[in-house]
Amino acid sequence: MYGGGSSGTQSKRDMAIEYQAQIPILRPSIHARRANMTVKFQDLYGFTVEGNVDDVNVLNDVREKVREQGKVWWELECSKGPNWYLEDSHVFSSFMNGITLKRLIRKGIPPNLRPTVWFSLSGAAKKKSTVPDSYYRDLTSAVEDKITPATKQIDHDLPRTFPGHSWLDTPEGHAALRRVLVGYSFRDSDVGYCQGLNYVAALLLLVMKTEEDAFWMLAVLLENVLVNDCYTSNLSGCHVEQRVFKDLLTKKCPRIAAHLEAMDFDVSLVCTEWFLCLYSKSLPSETTMRIWDVLFYEGAKVLFNVALAVFKMNEEELLRAHHVGDVINVIQRTTHHLFDPDELLTVAFEKLGFMITTNISKQRKKQEPAVMAELDQRVRRLNSLNGDDKQ
After folding, report:
1. What is the CATH number of the domain that holds 336?
2. φ/ψ bin of 245: left (φ > 0), alpha (ψ from -120 to 50), beta (otherwise)
3. What CA dihedral angle connects 271, 224, 127 and 123, to 10 degrees?
4. Which stretches make up the Rab-GAP TBC domain (predicted)?
5. For residue range 168-201, what is the model confidence (pLDDT) as tens digits?
């Protein structure tokens, strides 16, 4: 279930993400087909999507690919048993033609297997096993009535988190999301709550079978998968990631980087939301889920692969842009209509060359001093201004 809801809610949710024969073929009206008008429909995770008929065709193709990929996973489930993906050896029988687990995950985890695969491969199951079974229940009960700056901000953000969603934007959805976010704000007071986490936790609630598992997925993300300090008060980790990305863009897409620098375009204008919300606000839901499939197995470097791919896919159009607003419009228009995850991930993992984790770690360490110096200078400037105001 999404959270603390009834068995009826669980049944609705399970039906919503069932990927096999139950996945409907989207059929825009004949008038929409003729006029190529914008049409609205719900995706597998309950989000209302706007697109044209071409987008509908892409989504139908994607749904067929999801069915086919599901058959591969179920075949392995039947032949190798549950949790086959936890085997030490990542090379399978001739049935898989030597495909590794990494390649299989990059092709997509079937939606109804995501909860168990994510929970195991991310390390969330191991993290949960280190505390008493009642940990989450005891935590949420203990902090339910406490009021802090974090809880006040969470309450402010709940109705703004995917408004209009069929479950998230309900009293039940708000209550479940609040318990997860408030619980984590007390688990890690250094993070507390940062805007952006509401969108991440909301998607985790839609995917995981229980509210408690969504909490542990959020914990493993912040404590093990992502870099440190991405969500602390000064967002230093996020600033580091943006600097590393700017360097990677120069190396992997030099023409784009040079053009944007000549325009004085700051990549943080688009990347801040990507890195804080893990693309959950920027991309269609199934495309985001495919990125998260890889994120939970390969780590945070995946966020760079995807960011580079978005720029690379728009190279020629970006080179024709001459205003900051034009660049933002090109990027946002693209991300809004990236309904085909394979199109994005093919560029991310096959057309941009390898990115070695150790090299990225070195780049992060290289950028940290400059980021901390800049943040310290910002604090001193603010303190000076506040001092002047008091005089």
Report:
1. 1.10.472.80
2. alpha
3. 80
4. 108-299
5. 999 999 999 999 999 999 999 999 999 999 999 9
